[in-house]
Amino acid sequence: MSRNRKSSRRVSYDEDRYTGRRETDTYVYGNTVRKLEPERVWEEQEEAPARKPHHEVRKNRDKAHYMNAGYVMFLAAALCAAAIILVNYVQLQAELTNLTKSVATSESTLNRMKIANDEEYNRILSSIDLEEIKRIAITELGMVYAQEGQIIEYENESGDYMRQVTENN
User: Which of 17, 58, 90, 145 is most buried, judged by most C-beta within 10 A?
Assistant: First the structure.
């Protein structure tokens, strides 16, 4: 004979240990054995007596489940504040993206203008004939090269320009 851990009564071999029914009470069709009732292991275990929670614990649980009007208003205000902050954040992100695109467009325009300016400057420099300018200056305008004593050099340590107050001969 076997002994059940949950109860102290003896169970015979032909008696189901969980249901207490005899196997001879039912007929099984087919070649497999089916369990007619699920195991009731959990139901047979003795439940520990439920302890009543302490008064403070019960009070805290009641407070946790209870939502008063002030708490609901606080949550609504917090939700509105979070929504406003998020909307402003998204708007700032969109504005930043637009400004970045605008800066990129302005930079590309500036680069194109610099390239066009450099090309025009090089075209003008290459079209200038210095020998022709010298010929026109000497023959048509009567310009001459400076003599040895005509060139006066000044040293200016104070600034970028100089004024001539008196005429030197």
Answer: 17
Task: Check residue 149 and report its DSSP letter.
Answer: T
> For 128-151, where are the alpha helices, taking DSSP H only?
130-135
Q: Give the largest CA-CA distance in the chain.
A: 146
Convert the pLDDT of each residue in 123-134 to its tens digit: 999 998 889 999
Closest CA to 15 of 31, 2, 28, 27: 2
Quick one: DSSP state of residue 101? H
pTM of the model: 0.40
Task: Give, in order, the Cα–Cα distances in Å from 103 to each of 5, 95, 100, 108, 113.
Answer: 82, 12, 5, 9, 15
Kindly state the DSSP code that residue 62 receives in the 8-state scheme: H
